[in-house]
Every structure is written in C-alpha cells, then in structure tokens.
Design a protein that fits this description.
The chain has 254 residues and is of the alpha/beta class. The chain is built from 8 helices and 14 strands. The protein is 28% helix and 21% strand. Helix 1 packs across helix 2 and helix 2 packs across helix 8.
Length: 254
C-alpha cells in the first residue's frame, strides 16, 4: 500500500505507545496517534483527555477535548480539578502525548506566540492548555509534529512548556517528577534526548529519508546517533485502521 509522510509519522507515533497503560492525550496529531494505538498495537490503552474523560473509546478522531463522544464512550468522567490534582499531579499517568508549534534542541515547547518579524504583529497561538502540567508530571512525554525549520528552531519565541530546560538537571531543580520528553516523532524521523546532554539527536529516519534531509529541516546543528536506523514502513493493517479513523471523522464533521 502507498503511504504518505504524515501516515509514516502517525503510525510511528502510535507504535511509541506500545506497552503503555494509559496516555494523557493532546488534541490533533497526538490524538490521532493515541486512537490509532488503541486500534492496533495497544488495544488496552486507557485514553485520558484534559476535559476529564478517562478510558474514552471514540469511534472516530475527536474534534476537540470537548467532543461529546469522549464522554459518551468513557469509563468515567471526572472534574477538571480532579483530573489535574489527583490523576496528573498524583503521578497516575504513564505517558503524556503533546504537539507543538515550536520546539528547541532541549524539547522545550512554544504554543503561545510566534514572532513574525519586524513591523509585523505577533502570531497568537492556542496557548498552553494542560501541556505544562502534563510535561511536568507524566511518567514520560512523547511529542509529534511535522519537521521544518519553522517548527524546529534554535530558540523558541516563548517558553510555554518545559521539556529539558537548558540541559540535564533542570527538571530536578524545579521539582518535576516526570522524565520529560523521551521521543519526538516527525514526518521525517524520530529524535530522542541524548543521555548525557539531554539535547535532541536523530536516532531514526523514515523510509526514503536521509540524515541530511532531517538536518536541513532543523534550525540548529542537529547531531545524530552513531547508527541511525530506518523505521519499518506502515503495515496494511495500520494504514487501514488509520484511514478508517480519519474517514469516520470527516463523515461526522460533514
């Protein structure tokens, strides 16, 4: 089966949830990946959304965290304060899955405002939502976004959500219990923080993508692992499940 770069990204993002017990899901690409994981590699995955739904089982991609199907198909619905105070800050969430408008070499996130240059007003973005608390308290954090020099920047325009700060030890100094970002999945490959420096480096490329292509799409001098491996292409089953989720969403939206 033919597949697109977006599908490569979404399938690999879903695979990253193999073995996870539960996931605090961001809307957009993270939600696509998490719902695909439930349909393929991890059918027992418990999806948790910021609106207070626990164990949601949507039949299509939700339009937002307030999509009614998230509550209708959930095992439980709790208040937002309970979600954050008891479940998230209580250390009961395995994985947080986030997107970003901008990301730097230490996986710090900007989803608030972008500088568009001289004599142009700032571009306002959706803002933080629950991302700062998710990144601080989940056992680990996965991220998914498309790879370009607009998104992977040397210096983010605004610090919305802390990843690894300015390097090793910053999270511990701030009392953040979670491990922080452990992988950034893009439409070109996968980046992971270096164990010694916490700086993102390239560990995997997708089929047909070169290391040079990824470096050219990154706003800093991207380092790579000694051996960069190639991800496995999507299986027909993964593609069928992904396309069915998207088609169902388009049908309901129409």
């Amino acid at each position: 089966m033919e597949f697109s770069r977006d599908e490569l990204m979404e399938v690999n993002a879903a695979r990253a949830l193999t073995g996870a017990r539960n996931c605090f899901v961001g809307i957009g690409l993270p939600s696509t990946a998490a719902n695909l994981a439930r349909a393929t590699v991890n059918p027992d995955l418990v999806l948790i959304y910021e609106s207070g739904t626990i164990g949601s089982k949507p039949t299509r991609l939700p339009l937002s965290i307030g999509d009614g199907e998230l509550a209708e198909t959930a095992d439980a619905v709790v208040s937002v304060p309970e979600m954050f105070n008891y479940w998230l800050q209580g250390g009961r969430i395995d994985v947080g899955f986030l997107g970003a408008a901008q990301i730097d070499r230490y996986a710090n996130i900007n989803t608030t405002v972008v500088d568009r240059g001289p004599d142009k007003p700032e571009a306002r973005l959706p803002g933080a939502g629950g991302a700062p608390e998710i990144a601080a308290n989940c056992g680990k954090v996965l991220m998914v976004l498309r790879h370009s020099t607009r998104s992977f920047v040397k210096k983010i325009d605004f610090m919305t959500t802390l990843g690894h700060g300015s390097g090793p030890g910053d999270r511990a100094k701030l009392g953040m219990p979670g491990a922080g970002p452990v992988a950034v999945i893009t439409d070109l490959g996968i980046l992971r923080p270096d164990a010694a420096t916490a700086e993102l480096h390239l560990t995997e490329v997708h089929p047909g993508v070169t290391v040079e292509q990824v470096r050219a799409a990154t706003g800093w001098e991207l380092k790579s692992a000694d051996k960069v491996i190639t991800t496995e292409p999507p299986t027909p089953e993964e593609l069928t499940a992904l396309r069915a989720l998207k088609a169902a969403g388009r049908s309901d939206a129409a």
